[in-house]
Amino acid sequence: MKRSKVISSLAIVVAAVAFALLSCGREVDVRPAGAGTDRPAEVFPDYREVTIPCNIAPLNFYYTDPEGRAFVTTFTAPGVSVKIRGREIKWKEKQWKKLLSAATGSDIKVSSSYRSAREEVVLDWLMHVSADKIDPFLTYRLIEPGFEVWDDLEIRERNLESFEERAISDWKHTQNKCMNCHIHSHARGDLSMFYLRGQGGGAILNRGGTLRKLTLKDSEMISPTVYGEIHPGGRYGVFSTNIIIPAMHSFGPNRMEVFDTGSDLCVADFDQNHMFTFPQFAREDVFETFPVFSAEGDYVYFCTAPSKKLPAEIDKMMYSLVRVPFDAKTGELGTQVDTVWNARTRAKSVCHPKTSPDGRYILFTIADYGTFPINHSECDLCMMDLRSGELVPMDEVNADKSDTYHSWSSSSRWFVFASKRGDGMFGKPYFSHIGEDGTVTRPFLLPQKDPHFYDNMLRSFNVPDLGDAPVGFDAQEIGRIWREMPAEQFD
Amino acid sequence: MNRKGRRILWICLAVVVLAAAVSQFLFFFRYPYFRRYAAENGVTLLEARRAWGHPSEISEVAMGLAVEAARENWDRVAQIASVDRKSEVGTYYYNLSNAMRGTLPDRLMDYYQPFERGLFLPVGEKSTPFIIACASDVWFALGDMSMAERDAMLGMLFSPSHTGPRYLRRLAETNLVKGDTQAASKYLRILLNVPSHRRWAHSRIPGSWSPAVQSRIEAKRALLPRTDVVHGMDQTQIILRVLLNSNPSNKMALDYLLCYDLLTKDLDAFVADFAPNLTSSVLYEEAILIFLASKGGMSEDNWDHYHVSPSTLERFNRFVTLYKQNDGAMSSLEEFRKTYWFYFYFASHNEKK
């Protein structure tokens, strides 16, 4: 054999060995797992006994038993059976879609078996596949739980039917500006907004794909607008103005406390560039916050509480849920305030109300006290049937950590929320189905291509918000608007 | 290319490779802490240089302090900090290393003290990422896991790769101390998948602690606050008082509080916080004498109560005499440069334009 041939043969062998070594890699260490850790269940994400929409991306997961081996998982639906070996379940998209399609309206039966350190483990479980589709787009802000400062923020839009994700606003195009979460108006991709803060910033309003940059403040307001929502008609927005103070807990499970020392209501007329303020909702002795419209747009729901000496009396700060009529012809809020959920009698505090697009439900968060329960581990979701005033049982949904920042799908059949279940630090998007009879199902975690994605994720999914269509802009366009478009003034 | 040409090419390539290797070797040799600090931040040397620029003698010292403090090598920290370079980070670690060895007040006036910023590094929008990365160390040592966790989280947030073993280890430990094993397991799992930190993380998996780890966690737990007070991020005195209310024997917290009072020249707070039976230092005696003199309280009873020694009293009288004789001229009081009296009367903020 010629010398050159020997050398090239050797090179091929060396390359093959190197490739084999690299591709085998070391197995991911899944410890710690089990009771008392953030991976208490046998599988993560725990997709056992969940209800999923028929258009969801593949539910990849892994087995958490560090000592486990010889994993075999069989998925069965009418006419389809798929067997996967190994700790990680990573679906091929076509295979998953076939399974999902076969199981729509019924169940996927899953049979898992593996050898743990002591015994053979067999798990039989179901995934219920609802025929109700979920809105295919989800926007969220990715942010580190960094208390009062930020770095490298971005708002992303994820296609829930696949693993596609894109930035709709990011730090790269805005010189690391602060940006607040993106919200759709009742899950409409063509009607949404978010804030870019700081110099060159403003409220970015998306109406039918046309983007505007707005300075939503007039001389009577205590701050620029903070929380709020766009009217279903698209002309108005209702907002709160808040003086927000961050603080820390010295002890206990709740790390941070954020409270307002003042908050009022206002309405923005996006057609006339006019801010409406209201003396009845601008009192110093009463706080109003988190306003949203009813499905029809004829009421504004918001949270309200009498002011207290803060932070000394923070644990006495209880917000009730109330509503007031809204006149979509004039942009005026009425004066007749109805109490929907009374904080005094229930000894809890409400925030983040969101009405379902069909007008039947209002979903909100309750905590022991305060107005910013994202750091309150006791904070849970609560849902009221607006036809009866009855509360819908939510035991299947809530966990022992903060569950909040929810939004509805356009069909009112699904809602998404950020939950800190598990580690208690990082919010992750969970989805629940609500049936015709008002039954709410066990939530499932947003699936990711890599089943270990959440193990390494050190950012929170902040304010996950469902959309029926992609928003018609991207981070590059937002960067151009930030740089070049002057903000429209409101009076 | 002919044979000679190929040979020249090979020689040139070999020289370039050799030069690069020598350059890297010299770099490692000259800036070992830059390399270690980069590793703690989970970035390569190239990424580190892109983020922090080329290292210098000054940055090497600062990173050395941060690296050795993270490993709790307090003697080494003290050794690196022994040369007073008049930097906030240098003073911060100088003070911390003294505190860990029980000599914070005794050594306080021996060194550049940029007011309270030499005790607690300011964390805010104007702080550099390096300052923020170091800010957690003092809180962890004092036993305030909430503040230690917050500063570690912010340090990670501003680190080049938004992660790094330096921060993950601190986050894991603060949560283990607080008993939040669910949060701790998140960070431990990430570290278990970093070969160089696997052993450390493994030793801290709940349920498999060695006696040394158990004892370390329990010692920290004993320092935890036991009451919940909602406080601002920068309300340092309140935070320290909460620690002390729960554990009056936390001498390090007491010394930090008293030194904070003194460096901010808040003598009323100092007297209110001072517990003569729990801690003592010539520094405190000096401060008490200023307070007593200004309040008309120069009596034997008070000197006894505050444990003021005759020698300190004698020196104070001389200081006052010289001060009066020379209309408060600083030059006439050089012999008192390392006293609290000198700091109290002459230390002023550098106003940066």
Layout of strands and helices, then pairs:
The complex is a heterodimer of chains A (491) and B (353).
Chain A (H helix, E strand, L loop, with lengths): L2 H22 L18 E2 L5 E4 L7 E3 L5 E9 L2 E6 L2 E2 L3 H11 L3 E9 L4 E11 L6 E7 L10 E6 L5 E6 L12 E3 L2 E9 L5 E6 L2 E6 L9 E6 L5 E14 L6 E14 L4 E4 L8 E8 L5 E8 L13 E8 L4 E2 L4 E4 L1 H4 L2 E7 L5 E7 L12 E6 L5 E2 L10 E6 L5 E6 L8 E6 L10 E2 L7 H4 L3 E8 L7 H10 L3 E2 L2
Chain B lengths: L2 H28 L1 H9 L4 H8 L4 H14 L3 H8 L6 H13 L3 H5 L20 H6 L1 H7 L2 H13 L7 H14 L2 H12 L5 H6 L7 H11 L8 E2 L4 H11 L4 H13 L3 H7 L8 H14 L4 H6 L4 H16 L14 H7 L7
Helix pairs in contact in B: 2-4, 4-5, 4-6, 5-6, 9-10, 10-11, 11-12, 11-14, 15-16, 16-17, 17-18
Plain-language structure description:
The complex is a heterodimer of chains A (491) and B (353). Chain A is mainly beta and 491 residues long. Chain A has helices at residues 3-24, 93-103, 343-346, 453-456, 475-484, and strands at 43-44, 50-53, 61-63, 69-77, 80-85, 88-89, 107-115, 120-130, 137-143, 154-159, 165-170, 183-185, 188-196, 202-207, 210-215, 225-230, 236-249, 256-269, 274-277, 286-293, 299-306, 320-327, 332-333, 338-341, 349-355, 361-367, 380-385, 391-392, 403-408, 414-419, 428-433, 444-445, 460-467, 488-489. Chain A is globular and about 75 Å long. In chain A, 48% of the residues are buried. Helices cover 65% and strands 1% of the residues of chain B. Chain B contains 21 helices and one strand. Chain A binds chain B through residues 28-33, 36-39, 144-152, 245-253, 255-257, 311, 314, 422-426, 455-456, 458-459, and chain B through 124-125, 144, 146-147, 149-150, 153-154, 156-158, 162-163, 180-183, 185-186, 188-190, 192-193, 198, 202, 205-207, 224-233, 239, 242.
